[in-house]
């Protein structure tokens, strides 16, 4: 996917890490806020009637037409909220998954750009070897040139770009950052990216393409993708795990110690999030899974 020009900020590696930690944690807060909103909206008719009685007591009574309109709106919203609560918020978690994957894609691009800004191009042989037309660099500044180079590299790799973490690893390897991850993370990223693609490009249908890429998934709810809370939490924790992992990989690439704590402390954080994901694999809402994720891992 081509980088959108002028949207990648001039951030240092540390700033990139902090920015995406913040975005992921903000997403978690957003999800929780919407959950609370759904719960309250499920009682909206009662709340609307209560507010009408309070207003009447304080002589701020609304007209019968206004009350009827408010109640009609409340009934429609309450019906939708109750349906979503009964289904365990698939609409919310589908959207949250799409946002999580978008954060990861931007994260990898911004890590790569921060690496390019911090060194000369000949430090990265794959990028330095690219053949490009001089016309592509006319009337563009240094930062935009780097975006063009990275975009062109990804275009030349289009036929070999792998799914899931594979596409991230190719970009990070090109800027001398170890993008390798554990097998369970690769599997999780593959599932995330394929479900995201199904939601965005194929209307959320569980089709042959999705099942061939992720054979451990099975059709649910009439063949529609419906991410549930346990699944989303695993995806969200895996995204946080990945940002920590790349933070350590950047420290290795720069031959420096991580800020904000010792290397052992950051590695402990990796294990902390991995344990959370394992526990979700055992007890989470695995609606589309035939068996828990990480089966066979030590517990």
Give the tags.
single chain; 299 residues; mainly alpha; 2 domains; 11 helices; 65% helix; 0% strand; elongated; disordered N terminus; disordered C terminus
Notes on the structure:
- This protein is an all-alpha fold and 299 residues long.
- It has helices at residues 13-41, 44-57, 64-86, 90-117, 125-128, 142-156, 165-174, 183-201, 208-213, 229-254, 263-283.
- It has 2 domains: 42-86; 90-283, no CATH class.
- Helix 1 packs antiparallel against helix 4 (90-117).
- The longest helix has 29 residues, at 13-41.
- It starts with 12 loop residues before the first helix and ends in a 16-residue tail after the last helix.
SSE-based structural type: mainly alpha
**Which radius of gyration do the C-alpha atoms yield?**
23 Å
Task: Give a short account of the largest sheet.
Answer: none
Task: Give the low-pLDDT segments.
Answer: 1-8, 283-299
In short:
The chain has 299 residues and is an all-alpha fold. Helices cover 65% and strands 0% of the residues. The chain has 2 domains: 45 residues; 194 residues, no CATH class.
């Amino acid at each position: 996917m081509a980088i959108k020009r002028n949207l990648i900020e001039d951030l240092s590696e540390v700033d990139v890490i902090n920015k995406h930690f913040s975005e992921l944690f903000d997403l978690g807060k957003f999800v929780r806020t919407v959950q609370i909103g759904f719960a309250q909206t499920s009682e909206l008719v009662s709340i609307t009637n209560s507010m009408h009685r309070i207003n009447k007591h304080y002589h701020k009574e609304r007209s019968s037409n206004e009350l009827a309109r408010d109640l009609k709106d409340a009934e429609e919203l309450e019906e939708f909220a109750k349906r979503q609560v009964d289904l365990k918020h698939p609409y919310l978690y589908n959207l949250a998954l799409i946002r999580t994957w978008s954060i990861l894609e931007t994260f990898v691009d911004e890590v790569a750009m921060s690496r390019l800004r911090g060194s000369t191009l000949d430090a990265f042989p794959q990028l330095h070897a690219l053949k490009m037309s001089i016309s592509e660099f006319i009337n563009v500044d240094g930062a935009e040139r780097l975006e063009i180079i990275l975009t062109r590299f990804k275009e030349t790799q289009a036929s070999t770009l792998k799914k899931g973490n594979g596409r991230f690893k190719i970009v990070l390897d090109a800027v001398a950052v170890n993008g390798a991850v554990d097998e369970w993370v690769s599997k999780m990223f593959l599932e995330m990216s394929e479900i995201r693609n199904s939601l965005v490009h194929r209307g959320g249908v569980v089709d042959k393409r999705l099942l061939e890429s992720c054979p451990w998934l099975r059709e649910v709810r009439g063949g529609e993708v419906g991410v549930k809370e346990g699944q989303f939490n695993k995806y969200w924790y895996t995204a946080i795990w990945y940002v920590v992992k790349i933070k350590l990989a950047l420290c290795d690439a720069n031959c420096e110690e991580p800020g904000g704590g010792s290397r052992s402390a950051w590695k402990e954080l990796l294990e902390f999030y991995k344990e959370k994901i394992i526990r979700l694999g055992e007890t989470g809402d695995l609606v589309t899974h035939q068996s828990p994720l990480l089966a066979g891992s030590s517990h």
